[in-house]
Amino acid sequence: MFKRGDIVWGKIKTYPWWPAIVLNPKDCGRDKVGRNKFWIFWFGDHKITQVKCNEVLDFQKHFEEKCVPKIGKALKSAICEVLTILAARYNIKNSDPSSLFDWARKGFKKKLCRPSDNSKSLELPDIVKNALKKKAFQRKEDNDDEIVNALDDVSKGKTSLEDICVMCFKLDNSVVMPHPFFVGGVCQDCRPFISEITKTPKGQMNDICILCCQGGNLVYCCNSFCMSAYCETCIDYMTPKETLSEILKDNDWKCYLCMPATDDRCLIKRREVYLAVGPSTRPVKKSSICVMGLNDAVMSVLMKKMISVNSFSYISPRTSNRSYDDFSIKEIKDIDPDFIYDSFFVSSAVERKESQECLFVSFYKFLYRLVMTRPLKPYIFFMYMCDAEIVNEFIKMRVRRFLQVDPTKIKIGKKEVYLWSNLPAIKDIKDNVYLMKKSRGPMFIEEDILNKFLEPLKDFFHARIIK
């Protein structure tokens, strides 16, 4: 049986075996650990997960088996962290990574003495201690009475989920923003953790709850396009009795984002069309607009509309076409966009399959920027348009799921364009089909559409002053 401080290999679902260290529950702010489970700290991304005993192996005994010749950079970096810790325990100093890997492959034995102090193996390395301090893990169980009282008031209609923080349920914490995915508020203390759930693309596993941004015993959505994680604590508190046991028995469970609960007693409620619902009121004091756009067509139209532009950032092609994160998180924060725009048009000479592959890359870049911007502001305007001829029902379904708006078909002569946007002028179009009677030709289709639908931005942003 492993004990605190033991270096191990751990396994979660489809992920490869990964180096970790065993923790006590108290190390990560927990009072207990599940039956036949361990709390472990993952090297590399420095996250915490509870793992079953049969999914944990001794690191040194299984090193040769798990550390195969061709491993990814992230896994290699995590293993390097472990080898540095083991070297320190055996009083090896000034060893470079390559020599440590050689030492490990030779069985960790190369005429080494035992650790000078046997208690060292039970201590947590500084890299682990520092990461635990930064995360300051605190579970919602610590506020059991507050949670019960808050949710009881919601159930009785005395208060609204929007008026309490659904991440911590501390009644003395004022709500500063809505939760991006679910009905409920987020307080100032919890706001910094929102980026942890929004930065993980859909379809990739996360090791924290998408509702409260904390770890613990997690259940995952079985939809391969989603795979969102929910902690058992949130499900226990916010759903009817026996819900958790039913979920654990269901081998094809679809989460609250994919299939909203129909039981009114369930308080985990998807925020319907969060991005599609506009500001409830127009701002009393208008400011200049900040834009993140694909090309200068947006800038040209905004100038014609006499809308004051504070900053305009092109989508840089500086990285591979396959990279979604073409803007860093810091760059997005610096730009602080109010309006995000992207489009995808293809030549008729390009094959349909190739066009669809490129469309997905283009859309996920757009989605990445939108998701990373969402925690920064209560509301962001967006627009994405593309050729209708390459869009099938599957693509429409995927885009609809992520953007939470139905596509509007724009007809310009023989040309058809699909448009997804939360701009007021587009949401009011009857039957989601709009016939544009005037166009300057194929070369100006994009700009003509923008010119038609960007007019409402005047109601929300400062007018440009001509001196």
UniProtKB/TrEMBL annotation:
Subcellular location: Nucleus
GO cellular component: nucleus
Keywords: Metal-binding, Nucleus, Zinc, Zinc-finger
Keyword flag Phosphoprotein: no
Lineage: superkingdom: Eukaryota
Residue span(s) of domain PHD-type: 153-287
SMART domains (alphabetical): PWWP
Record-annotated PWWP domain positions: 4-62
Gene Ontology terms, MF aspect: zinc ion binding
PROSITE patterns: ADD (PS51533), PWWP (PS50812)
Protein name: DNA (cytosine-5-)-methyltransferase
Organism: Larinioides sclopetarius
Lineage, uppermost ranks: Eukaryota, Metazoa, Ecdysozoa, Arthropoda, Chelicerata
